[in-house]
From TrEMBL:
InterPro entries: BEACH_dom, BEACH_dom_sf, BEACH_Domain, FAN-like_PH, PH-BEACH_dom, PH-like_dom_sf, WD40/YVTN_repeat-like_dom_sf, WD40_repeat_dom_sf. It comes from the Eukaryota. Residues 159-257 form the BEACH-type PH domain. Transmembrane segments: none annotated. Residues 258-544 form the BEACH domain. The keyword Protein transport does not apply. This is Neutral sphingomyelinase n-smase activation associated factor fan. It comes from Daphnia sinensis. WD repeats lie at residues 593-636, 737-778, 779-813. Keywords: WD repeat. SUPFAM superfamilies: BEACH domain, PH domain-like, WD40 repeat-like.
Length: 909
């Protein structure tokens, strides 16, 4: 038996399909009659449809508004109407045929009685004759009454021992289709049962093994939907469910959350994109998903930018900036003359004002591009007709010209232009779309620009353009317009980026609209006009790092994104990853120094004759200096006899060291002449940590010293007449004193010098303003000592680690700061970690533990990707990455007194 040709796409958008009956159909008109046909009569909210068993015959749609009478005759129903619609004759997708004459249709029932159908059909027919408001009210009452009588059938439970934990009415959303049903969550499965049993009686998803990811979604601008992504073995792969309220959605999400594999966070994804781990295409897909855009909802389909504007040249030179569209402007502002007219209209418009009368992505625009791939969706959207042949997507060049010059054409692109084989550009189904009026040619494949010989070549070149250096440098400007701080409000007006108010979330709360006609009007406008994505960024989006990305330590590729497995990309991304892999995979210990008798407490670097040298200090009171080029120790000195050293750092552009001691002192030591300039008592207890930041205004340095006396003090260290030397006079150079509730054990300056982060022995983390010393924020802390705090190189993030084994990354360039990632999962893997030190490049973190291990923690995959026993016995107390261009040298030190150099053969022989 052939599969059913019936589909919910044959209904009007928003129409509800109820049930079907096995019937024999006959039809007569004034001048002819049709022989009997077997098939199924399908009852819908605005129509009745007859699907013949023989696919040669078309499906017949009887719009109830065209019916003059419905009555019973024996075990049959007779319908008299003045219009019939024929669809899918010979199972071929084609425009519907509308027959306008008087028809008398007779349906004889095989298994049901005619009374069962007559009452329901008569109700729906009566509703179709009422004025719009009464019609909508009666239709809603009919739908509510029918659906309220349908309960979840417990016979569908796979295991009778399952217990129902959640049940609610839902709408399953797919392109142009909203199908009501019930969702049930038990102790083992999620069940979705459509009220009309279409396209299957029930869908079953195992919570433990089938769910890949659950994402929050909007529906009709309300935060009341979920999209469930299932694993490869499941069918279907996606289930988009809209619920009646946000609270019900929250409860369903809570039930599914334990089985959810969460996607990477927004901040982590941005970090990956900046470092080239995510391609531009992947990042845009991620942002669309994070902003509630979904391939299952045509009203919120993913949006991608036009990046190329040259569709006439024989060759496309991707190195030529003139071929690219200006990504800092919305489509509507690219033509100055058109923009001038729009602004004049905007200034004369009453409130609420808007610049653009149409959107950049709506169902009509999606299907404009994809009509050849999804013709049945086009017929559904346009009432059974294709668009006029002259208005179809016939030419990429012509479409770009319309977008640039059209009075109301501001559409962007869909993801299909940058991925796949370009099948949407080819009329592979040989659909009859009509003939163009200009030259009589039939509408076939899309005309390609001269620089693309095939659809595949077009997609490849557009993808190359999207991933080009020029677009990478400017893509953040377009992100600001679509997903960011220029999306709404006064900034949107200034950026010429303002759309109709109904496009924006929060413009109308449908839950408060009581009048059904008004609510329906709002729903239609929201569905047809287009919806602004959820706003993801309230500050300017950071730019991507230019050129070859600075050395990320990460070895891991990104997780899969929404639309398929990751593909390897050419250019910067591969060069970055291969550079990182070749060094970290080969990172090995080359030289071990055993010179210290006690625990090493500090590491620093300075340059001498263009040669980077490492410095270590220890509780044994000694300073030791090592040449990284040849792995030799070149200096060992005890500058302050019988005074253990607790911290060290090198002053910028000099060979001067600042030292912290166990005797409450800070000392200034000149390495080049082995001279101790001064030793000053600056605290009431031992010095635990030091930090410096250069003051760009006068070339001096701000010093922060932390102590077990519960304070941090800020000092100004002055550069002397000799530009390579400094002086430190505590009696006159104190700037501020920062009081804490317990001993301060770690600190770090923001690279910009305006903030200081501190960590205490009892687990508190604080942010302070520099140089005033005013408190800014108290961040979520640790259950034990905060052993290290470090800002990322760009200053946007702060990482903290502690003896409790917790690793936290904060976004600190927003107010208030927020946690980006938190590493409880890693702690649970291997008993309880005890972190003592860290180094990071903003993407990956090197950690030292109390067991003497060095861990490489990758923020891309959020896991430990390498674990090495570096020191024993005792903890790894200090870790640092040497500032050597194009090479990776890591220096570690521990309680065992050893200093170890790790690196590649290119640096350390």
């Amino acid at each position: 038996m052939p599969a059913s040709r019936f589909s919910l796409l044959l209904l009007e958008p928003g129409e509800i399909y109820f049930e079907d009956f096995s019937v024999t159909y006959t039809c007569s008109t004034q001048d002819s009659s049709i022989p009997p046909q077997r098939g199924r009569l399908r009852l819908c909210s605005k129509s009745a449809m007859f699907e013949p068993t023989d696919v040669k015959h078309p499906i017949l749609k009887i719009s109830l508004s065209y019916c003059s009478s419905v009555f019973k005759e024996e075990n049959s129903i007779v319908v008299q109407c003045n219009q019939l619609t024929e669809m899918l004759a010979n199972n071929i997708v084609a425009p519907y045929v509308f027959l306008k004459k008087t028809f008398i249709l007779k349906f004889t029932f095989h298994y049901a009685t005619s009374e069962e159908c007559l009452y329901r059909l008569s109700q729906l027919h009566r509703a179709s004759t009422l004025p719009p408001k009464e019609q909508q009210e009666m239709m809603e009452a009919i739908i509510h009454s029918r659906h309220a009588r349908v309960q979840f059938d417990p016979c569908w439970l796979e295991d009778l021992h399952e217990t129902v934990q959640f049940e609610a009415k839902v709408i399953q959303v797919s392109p142009l289709v909203s199908n009501p049903g019930r969702v049930v969550v038990t102790s083992a499965r999620l069940y979705y049962q459509p009220y009309n049993r279409e396209p299957w009686p029930v869908m079953k998803i195992r919570l433990a093994s089938d769910i890949e990811r659950v994402a929050r979604r909007r529906y009709l601008l309300q935060n009341s939907a979920l999209e469930i992504y299932c694993k490869e073995h499941c069918s279907p792969k996606y289930l988009f469910l809209a619920l009646d309220s946000t609270s019900l959605c929250d409860e369903l999400f809570k039930r599914l959350e334990p089985n959810n594999k969460p996607n990477i966070g927004l901040d982590v994804a941005t970090l990956q994109w900046q470092h080239g781990i995510l391609s531009n295409y992947e990042y845009l897909l991620f942002l669309n998903s994070a902003a509630d855009r979904s391939f299952n909802d045509l009203t919120q389909y993913p949006v991608f930018p036009w990046v190329v504007k040259d569709f006439t040249s024989a060759n496309l030179d991707l190195e030529d900036p003139s071929i690219y569209r200006d990504l800092s402007l919305p489509i509507g502002a690219l033509n100055p003359n058109r923009l001038k007219q729009l602004l004049e209209r905007f200034n004369d418009m009453p409130e609420p004002r808007f610049l653009y009368g149409s959107h950049y992505m709506a169902p009509g625009f999606v299907l404009f591009y994809l009509a050849r791939k999804y013709p049945q969706l086009v017929l559904c959207l346009h009432g059974g007709r294709f668009d006029h042949p002259d208005r179809m997507f016939n030419s990429l060049q012509q479409t770009w010209q319309n977008v640039m010059n059209g009075a109301a054409d501001y559409k962007e692109l869909v993801p299909e232009f940058y991925d796949g084989e370009g099948e949407f550009l080819v009329n592979y189904l040989d659909i009859n779309f009509g003939h163009r009026s200009s030259d009589g040619r039939p509408v076939q494949d899309v005309e390609l620009p001269p620089w693309a010989k095939s659809p595949q070549e077009l997609i490849v070149k557009l993808r190359q353009a999207l991933e080009s250096e020029h677009v990478s440098k400017n893509l953040h400007l377009w992100i600001d317009l679509i997903f960011g701080h220029l999306q709404r409000g006064t900034k949107a007006i200034e950026a010429r980026n303002l759309f109709h108010p109904l496009c924006y979330e929060g413009s109308v709360d449908l839950c408060t609209v009581i009048d059904p006609v008004t609510r329906l009007m709002y729903e239609i406008q929201i569905l047809e006009f287009g919806q602004i994505p959820r706003q993801l960024f309230t500050k300017p989006h950071p730019a991507r790092f230019a050129g070859l990305i600075p050395t990320p330590l990460s070895l891991m590729t990104s997780p899969d994104l929404q639309n398929g497995s990751r593909e390897e990309e050419d250019g910067v991304e591969n060069r970055t990853r291969s550079w990182s892999q070749s060094r970290l995979c080969n990172l090995q210990i080359h030289t071990v120094f055993h010179g210290h008798k006690k625990s090493v407490t500090g590491l620093a670097f300075y340059s001498q004759n263009d040669d980077v040298q490492a410095v270590s200090v220890s509780l044994d009171g000694f300073i030791k200096v090592y040449k990284l080029r040849n792995g030799k120790q070149v200096l060992s000195v005890n500058p302050i006899e019988s005074n253990p050293l607790t911290a060290c750092l090198c002053l910028p552009e000099s060979n001067a060291l600042l030292l912290g001691t166990l005797q409450n002192e800070v000392a200034l030591y000149q390495i080049d002449c082995c001279r101790l300039d001064n030793v000053a008592s600056v605290h009431d207890d031992n010095v635990t940590a030091l930090g410096i930041v250069k003051d760009e205004k006068d070339g001096n340095v701000i010093l922060a010293s932390a102590s077990s006396d519960c304070s941090v003090k800020l000092w100004r260290v002055h550069r002397t007449c000799s530009s390579s030397h400094f002086r430190f006079r505590p009696t006159t150079d104190l700037i501020a004193e920062l009081e804490h509730d317990s001993s301060v054990v770690s600190l770090d300056f923001h690279p910009g010098g305006l903030k200081l982060a501190t960590g205490t022995k009892e687990g508190q983390v604080h942010l302070w303003e520099v140089p005033t010393g005013l408190p800014l924020d108290a961040l979520p802390g640790h259950a034990d000592e905060v052993s290290a705090v470090k800002f990322s190189p760009d200053g946007s993030k702060l990482v903290t680690v502690g003896h409790d084994g917790l690793l936290q990354v904060f976004q600190v360039d927003i107010d208030p700061p927020q946690i980006v990632v938190k590493s409880e999962e890693m702690v649970a893997q291997d008993k309880r970690e005890d972190f003592r030190c860290l180094a990071w490049d903003g993407l990956s973190i090197l950690l030292g533990t109390a067991r003497g291990e060095m861990l490489i923690f990758d923020l891309v995959s959020f896991k430990v990707v390498r674990r090495v026993q570096a020191h024993a016995p005792g903890a790894l107390t200090c870790i640092a990455v040497a500032p050597i261009v194009d090479d990776l040298v890591v220096v570690t030190a521990g309680q065992d007194g050893r200093v170890c150099l790790w690196g590649s053969d290119a640096i350390i022989p």
